[in-house]
Design goal:
Number of strands: 11
Oligomer: single chain
Structural class: alpha/beta
Strand order of the largest sheet: 1-3-2-6-11-9-10
Helix content: 25-40%
Distance between the termini: 39 Å
Order of helices and strands: EEHHEEEHEEEEHEHEH
Low-confidence stretches: none
Shape: globular
Radius of gyration: 18 Å
Number of helices: 6
Largest sheet: 7 strands, mixed
Length: about 270
């Protein structure tokens, strides 16, 4: 059995010049659904399942990598924390008490490796994947705080153009939990983004998708938002770079409008 430290995830940093390097980040990007990789003993997934949104957020990691250096130049440095394995094994953006942390069905796709999962196996996955990843995120945010920075926290996701056969018209969703100021401002500033941008779409906190923000941003009162881009719009590296170049100024303007606003008491 793997040890917890094996699957904590990766960290990429960019300096204030936008170059790769260790930094005190003004922005921390988190990509919980970055990968569709599997590892023994968790490998029971067909190719079509691995290629689907059920296994990962297609394009999200590439978008986050493209955003990182752009935001770093405007906010004194940036950092990206990304997950190493597929959410088919364990969804890092779900509370451990949620059944969909180890889903048996994702939209149209059954997940064989999770059928009849035992409590002991669920615990093993949580200890191997969930705890190390969130300990890493916690450590990186604590490091920034200790070094005198209060980073903005942005989780980066993608969503499918249809859900159970129903087309989705939204192209960019911005989701918030109990600190809504930044998410609300991003939507206001998105007029020139060129994407149909909506607040709390195609998901909201009521769908339990803000778990990472609840764990790591809300306790410190850090400005935060969850970004959702329709995955057909970021299907290639070129598209990811193009969207990032349009999205980064929107985020920078929104951050500038909210960082001076006192956080409400939690």
């Amino acid at each position: 059995m793997m040890t917890g430290s094996d699957w904590a995830g990766g960290v990429i940093g960019w300096t204030h010049l936008g170059d790769p390097g260790e930094t005190v980040p003004g922005v921390i990007l988190i990509c919980e659904h970055a990968s569709n990789d599997l590892t023994p003993p968790w490998t029971d997934a067909a190719p079509d399942l691995l290629a689907s949104h059920a296994a990962s957020d297609p394009g999200a990691l590439g978008l986050a990598r493209a955003l990182g250096p752009l935001l770093a130049q405007q906010h004194g440095g940036a950092e990206l924390i990304h997950a190493p394995l597929s959410r088919l094994i364990y969804d890092l953006n779900r509370s451990p008490d949620r059944p969909d942390a180890c889903p048996t069905q994702s939209e149209l796709y059954p997940v064989p490796m999770n059928a009849g999962i035992s409590v002991a196996e669920r615990l093993a996955r949580m200890e191997s994947l969930y705890l190390p990843f969130h300990n890493l995120v916690r450590a990186r945010i604590a490091r920034a705080l200790a070094l005198g920075q209060r980073p903005v926290v942005l989780t980066v996701h993608s969503f499918s153009p249809t859900w159970h056969g129903i087309p989705r018209s939204v192209e960019c969703g911005v989701i918030h939990d109990n600190l809504p100021a930044l998410a609300q401002r991003i939507v206001v500033e998105a007029g020139d983004l060129g994407l149909r941008t909506e607040l709390n779409a195609p998901y909201s906190a009521a769908d339990h998708v803000t778990h990472t923000l609840r764990l790591h941003a809300l306790p410190y009162g850090l400005d935060n938002a969850m970004l959702e881009i329709r995955n057909d719009l970021i299907a290639t590296p070129e598209a990811q770079s193009a969207i990032a170049s349009r999205l980064a100024p929107v985020l920078t303007r929104a951050i500038a409008q909210t960082v001076e606003v006192p956080c409400p008491a939690l």
